[in-house]
Hints:
CATH architecture of the largest domain: Alpha-Beta Barrel
Helix content: 25-40%
Largest sheet: 10 strands, mixed
Amino acid sequence: MKNFKKNIRNLSKEELQDFFLSNGISSYKGTQVYKWLWEKGVVNFDDMTNLSLSQRSLLKREFIINHALINNKKLSNDGTSKYSVKLYDGLIIESVLIPTTRRVTACISSQVGCSLDCIFCATSILKRMRNLNSDEIYDQILLMNHESLISYKRPISNIVFMGMGEPLMNYNNVLSAIKKLTSTEGLKMSPKRITLSTSGIPKIIKKMADGNVKFKLAVSLHSAIQSIREKIMPFANKFPLEELLDALLYWYNITKSIVTIEYIVWEGINDQKRDIEALVEFCKKIPSKVNLIQYNPTDNFHKSEANKEVLNAYIKTLNFSKIRVTYRKSRGYDINAACGQLANKITSN
């Protein structure tokens, strides 16, 4: 029999207040329920201990709390943890916790599967089943925060939307989750500790800038030559680099926040002098910094990372042009938790 109860997390605080008023109960109870849901992450009405038994029974009759569960976990030799997270409808996503001496970063998914077709990313071979709802994204973060407290004895300090899916293809839900996350009625996290990584959807980048968001923006570029970018990121034929650059300039002019350019260097793809020069010219046009990312091989892309001489040539040329550059080594490679490897391969602890 189909369950016709509403997911209570879809209600605003005002709607919860109205619900209690309509049942002859003080609207303040709606405020309390809202705090249980979003500040404390409660997923069981019986845990809302400042409500009477009759009030909790009322909620049980009318609502459900759709919530995610940790389905499985794997621990890397470098301390990184990968989690298989089961959603209320049985679909699976993956989330990652990356600890260092100073922080714990949670890598968060925004879609079940992915909308795009980057050929070097394992997630791209998964069919996009659906977008995550805003409460599911938030729930995923609550789970990761809880796991961080257990495994690393401290809460998550940073969040990166670099997991499964393209965040800007789920723009409204991602933004709604971030608003709750940074709210005084949520986890109260500083937006400066949140980075949204996109493959580059110019129209949505501009829309995001118009929303006066305060979080950081990273763009998965990998080539500043249109023809090469289209080979490794076929969807890019709909979004020319000129349009992407225009959107990033728009972003910076409004937000004054520099853009992080994420870039992998592969042998035989983007390892020539012209590739380096194109990246430098691109970065000169927009206040930015470059993260060269260690390539993590996947089953669907049989290429090797460029050799050290090529990587050093990138670094040397970028530094000479006064463009900040770092080389980011992979974490969690041995458990398929590194950048580009999330493909629901987790099977055991």
